[in-house]
Write a structure and sequence with these properties.
The chain has 130 residues and is of the alpha/beta class. It is 41% helix and 18% strand. It is globular and about 30 Å long.
């Protein structure tokens, strides 16, 4: 994490297979001054993280090819990506899923449907912008 980080210097990777949710999150992030890049599943996200590591990742859990839990495990297992904040944003909202996500190393776990302000507060907190 870079010290003295400002919103306009932040890149957020949005990992989401639903285009409506992807666009909704991207618009929210853009309004807050954050740049976004996109991946539609965990495999694509891993490729993008290797090419250009983001400052933060917002990821769905239920996706084709590689789900968000597997992506989280892969990122936390790699010393080069282990410290990237990861917010899981998902319809999987059972207590067991939330506990599993946090125990696996998610920085936050936000169930869908989500409140935009809650997501934005979480993003800013993980980036130490509050």
């Amino acid at each position: 994490m870079v010290e003295n980080i400002t919103p306009d210097s932040v890149t957020i990777l949005i990992v989401e297979d639903d285009t409506v949710t992807q666009k909704t999150v991207a618009i929210l992030m853009a309004r807050a001054g954050f740049a976004s890049s996109f991946a539609s599943n965990g495999v694509e996200a891993l490729e993008k993280v290797v090419e250009n590591p983001p400052d933060l990742i917002i990821s769905d859990v239920m996706m084709p090819e590689m789900d968000g839990f597997t992506l989280l495990y892969a990122l936390r297992s790699n010393p080069q990506t282990a410290n990237i904040p990861i917010i899981l944003l998902t319809a999987r909202d059972s207590e067991v899923d939330i506990i599993d996500g946090i125990n696996m190393g998610a920085s936050d776990y936000i169930p869908k449907p989500f409140d935009p302000n809650t997501l934005l507060v979480s993003v800013k907190a993980r980036l130490n912008l509050n």
